[in-house]
Amino acid sequence: MKKIYAEIGIGNKSFLSTEIEEKNKEFRIRTFIFPEKLKEIYFRLWVFRFVIILSFFKGIFLRKKSKNNFKFLIGFGGVQKI
Question: CA 9, CA 15: separation in Å to the nearest integer?
Answer without folding.
Answer: 5
